[in-house]
């Protein structure tokens, strides 16, 4: 059997309840790419110290499940990438819905000569304050060229050349990764792309269940740069799992 041409990596901590809602969108997008490209893809779910049925749920959908016990999102993504066999890598989260065209568009971009890129998120929280905060971050990313880790992609070669995600950061590791990927792309004349014609839809559970003031405190440009290597500083994000 030929090796897969693309690998989707999904970190997951206690996501048994969310995988049935979101993983099918990833599989449908991957199937669309397989149909149009004639290639084969794979999905790797990295079970990150779950205490629920995350691993069994992911496996029931046909995903390859591997384990990473250290609670650090950069490390989890790197663990998935290390097990990947595809020459193209697509990173998303367990609570993100992909549009049907997502993986095809990302693969086409990489085949066209870019080292990678991202698909912007569309958050639709219930409260006005949360919506305004999301709109601010959309503007911030648009003006500064950043990208969230909810849907990032890179060629396996580029990922290896820049050393993957930093596993000494507990927050903003996705922004830092994309900054290095973009710099690498410029250096090899293969710039990153933002697929603005598409949007992925992440869960808004944290925006809907946490107060707007609490979200504003933890999601602003100042706090987002504060003690990023401190697990104690960011323990709320890892331990206060919102369901």
UniProtKB/TrEMBL annotation:
Record has Membrane as a keyword: yes
Q: Name one GO molecular function term.
A: glycosyltransferase activity
Pathway per the UniProt entry: Carotenoid biosynthesis; staphyloxanthin biosynthesis; staphyloxanthin from farnesyl diphosphate: step 4/5
A single GO cellular-component term from the record reads:
plasma membrane
**Keywords from the named record:** Cell membrane, Glycosyltransferase, Membrane, Transferase
Q: Provide the protein's localization.
A: Cell membrane
Spell out the InterPro entries in the cross-references.
Answer: Glyco_trans_2-like (IPR001173), Nucleotide-diphossugar_trans (IPR029044)
Q: Does the keyword Nucleotide-binding apply?
A: no
Domain called Glycosyltransferase 2-like: residue spans = 7-123
Tell me which family the UniProt entry assigns to this protein. Belongs to the glycosyltransferase 2 family. CrtQ subfamily.
What biological function has been recorded for the protein in this entry? Catalyzes the glycosylation of 4,4'-diaponeurosporenoate, i.e. the esterification of glucose at the C1'' position with the carboxyl group of 4,4'-diaponeurosporenic acid, to form glycosyl-4,4'-diaponeurosporenoate. This is a step in the biosynthesis of staphyloxanthin, an orange pigment present in most staphylococci strains.
**What is this protein identified as?**
4,4'-diaponeurosporenoate glycosyltransferase
